[in-house]
Amino acid sequence: MSSLRKTLTAVNQSSLLPESSIVAVKLADSEASGSSSSRITFRPRKIRKVSSDPSPRIIVTASPPLSTKSTVAIALRHLQSSDELLGALIKTHNDPPVFESSNPPFLSLARSILYQQLATKAAKCIYDRFIALFDGGESGVLPESVTSLSAVDLRKIGVSGRKASYLHDLADKYNNGLLSDELIMKMSDEELIDRLTLVKGIGVWTVHMFMIFSLHRPDVLPVGDLGVRKGVKDLYGLKDLPGPLQMEQLCEKWRPYRSVGSWYMWRLIEARKTK
Fold first, then answer.
1. Are 99 and 67 spatial neighbours (Cβ–Cβ below 8 Å)?
2. Does residue 14 register a pLDDT over 80?
3. What pLDDT score does 271 carry?
4. How many helices (H) and strands (E) does the chain have?
5. Which residues, at least 6 apart from 19, have a Cβ–Cβ distance to it below 8 Å?
6. Which among 53, 172, 225, 240 is annotated as catalytic?
7. Any residues with CB less than 8 A from the CB of 213 and at least 6 apart, and which?
């Protein structure tokens, strides 16, 4: 099976991602090794300080999550008015984007690890076996219960030794308080990238997919995603695939709904492949 069919389906709604959205091998390798080369510097979001606090807290201004039809509708109106080319693409799609996943963050991240670099069918088989190890199914997938599973237990259901170490590292960071579902829900996008990429096996691309499809964050631009890069190249008639800086510049007009703009880039590539 070619590498283009071993999709990195590391999100709850992996069916929304085209096969063309596979990250380059170099990026996938750097995620697996935890290399700092997969880290991308992002432009800071607008913030304001609360001066009445002796240790000022930073409040991040953000749009509501993409969990409701009304928020998606607002995003579409903004994108259509701010980008003529993207607006024309949006009009060709009758059905708007849907962001429905409701799994808790820990489960979503564990699932992302299990799905990495596997074809969808094989990944789902292993994931189902993984869930069967816990009392209560998915609701029983908790940091302490994952820690109780040995690498041997996980290998018996088809999880590689490397991925077993990734799952244990994720659980350990929850158990020691570095991460929690509550903290994740409160973190800014930049904080999520900084904190989650400390987990072995989780790189920037995985965090981007997690933020879009699990947390429904509205303004995520996955500059390392091959499908989104191809979509931007085709939309603007570029000669070459855009790099991170050019992606940021071209898609600046999509703020604060770059997640939705990215969703349409995947759809654009899918449509081109069927012609």
1. yes
2. no
3. 87
4. 14, 2
5. 4, 5, 7
6. 225
7. 11, 12, 13, 16, 99, 101
- Beta carbons within 10 angstroms of residue 93's beta carbon: 14
Residue-level pLDDT at 1: 46
Active site residue 234: no
Q: What are phi and psi of 74, to 5 degrees?
A: -65, -40
Residue 219 in contact with residue 63, Cβ under 8 Å? yes
pLDDT tens profile 165-214: 999 999 999 999 999 999 999 999 999 999 999 999 999 999 999 999 99
Q: Which residues have C-beta within 8 Å of that of residue 151, sequence separation ≥ 6?
A: 161, 164, 165, 168
Domain count, the chain: 1
User: Which tokens in the block code for residue 204?
Assistant: 């920037």
Query: Comparing C-alpha atoms, which of 163, 161, 183 is closest to residue 173?
Result: 183
Residue 191 CA to its chain's centroid (Å): 14
CATH number for 236: 1.10.340.30
Q: Which residue segment(s) compose the domain that 240 sits in?
A: 1-275
pLDDT at 257 over 50: yes
Nearest CA-CA partner of 226 in 202, 211, 205: 205
pTM, whole model, 2 decimals? Answer: 0.78
Could you tell me the two tokens for 52?
């009445």
DSSP 8-state secondary structure symbol assigned to residue 37: G
